[in-house]
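Hi R.,

As promised on Friday, here is the backbone we talked about, encoded as structure tokens. Could you run it through your design pipeline when you get a chance and send me back a sequence?
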């Protein structure tokens, strides 16, 4: 019998401490690699850790081994406590992750879920629980034959039915972890349920679905839409965010949709944008207090010429108040012309 979303499965800090030893926490600190580009090396290191953990999980599932969630909990505990969530979210969304679609998806969904959870006011112990659930909720997909997953958009109905069984498979796999993780199995079972009862596998309605399942569900949908797939290019992030508010009304509660918008921004990091000057660029930083005035890496001038030395334009600075974003654009819409010297307005220092 499924419990309702009102049941409290919150992990306390004491419970987490009992699960994780000091040795497991301290060994995460390790040696930092040399700085790469503009990303914090600690962010890069932990992104690689989560990718590797996802690969390990996949191998364990494929060999029918029981999962060990403690190493993942340990990493999540460190990431949440040291406020690395936002940096990791931006990194995993902006960069091409090593691994197949499922590996990349589970990593991106984890940190997208965590930023939404922060927007909902979840405390650190609840965020650790959310992160673990987001990371493991799709383990049942590793039991779906790879030839089906690689088919793309031309799936037969029987293949679609097989894929829709994966939440039950996730529930079965996670139920093996024991009574302490019953909540984890139940959340995974509900991630693809929708408020209007049109989800799967059980057609539950809003009052019977955990909020945490809604959080992971909307993160999963968002990440899937902004990611490239064999059968389509990724969608423009601004369009996906607008859809979350305008079109997902009967799929997810307003509280969850609003948290997505507040935390991800209408112009998220890595969005390509067109300015009122007709110049084109890519969002590289967003201040949540000024989400409509992000920092942009300028890539093309107003004539569509690619800049030899892309510059940084911070729209939040007073001297750039005349510049504004007109709309988001797709990467495929960027012009292909010879580089020229940058002339786009005042550089941010």
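Update: got your reply. Pasting your designed sequence below so it's all in one thread:
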């Amino acid at each position: 019998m499924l419990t309702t979303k009102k049941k409290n499965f919150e992990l306390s800090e004491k419970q987490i401490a009992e699960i994780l030893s000091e040795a497991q926490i301290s060994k995460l600190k390790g040696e930092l690699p040399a700085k790469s580009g503009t990303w914090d090396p600690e962010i890069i290191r932990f992104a690689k850790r989560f990718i590797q953990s996802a690969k390990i999980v996949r191998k364990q599932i494929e060999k029918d081994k029981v999962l060990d969630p403690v190493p993942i909990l340990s990493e999540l505990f460190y990431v949440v406590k040291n406020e690395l969530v936002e940096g990791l979210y931006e990194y995993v969304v902006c960069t091409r992750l090593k691994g197949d679609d499922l590996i990349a998806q589970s990593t991106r969904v984890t940190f997208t879920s965590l930023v939404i959870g922060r927007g909902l006011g979840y405390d650190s112990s609840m965020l650790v629980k959310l992160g673990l659930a987001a990371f493991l909720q799709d383990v049942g997909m590793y039991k779906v034959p790879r030839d089906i997953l690689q088919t793309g958009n031309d799936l037969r109905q029987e293949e679609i039915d097989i894929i829709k069984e994966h939440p039950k498979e996730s529930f079965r796999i996670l139920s093996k972890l024991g009574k302490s993780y019953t909540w984890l199995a139940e959340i995974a079972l509900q991630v693809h349920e929708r408020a209007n009862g049109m989800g799967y596998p059980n057609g539950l309605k809003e009052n019977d679905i955990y909020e945490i399942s809604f959080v992971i569900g909307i993160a999963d949908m968002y990440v899937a839409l902004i990611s490239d797939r064999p059968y389509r290019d990724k969608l423009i992030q601004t369009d996906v965010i607008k859809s979350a508010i305008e079109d997902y009304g009967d799929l997810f509660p307003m509280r969850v949709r609003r948290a997505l918008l507040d935390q991800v921004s209408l112009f998220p990091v890595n969005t390509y944008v067109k300015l009122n000057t007709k110049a084109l660029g890519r969002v590289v930083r967003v201040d949540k207090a000024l989400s409509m005035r992000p920092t942009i890496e300028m890539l093309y001038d107003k004539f569509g010429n690619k800049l030899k030395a892309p510059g940084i334009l911070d729209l939040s600075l007073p001297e750039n108040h005349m510049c504004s974003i007109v709309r988001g654009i797709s990467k495929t819409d960027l012009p292909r012309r010879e580089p020229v010297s940058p002339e786009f307005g005042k550089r941010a220092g």
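One thing I noticed while checking it: DSSP finds 14 helices and five strands in the chain.

Thanks again,
M.
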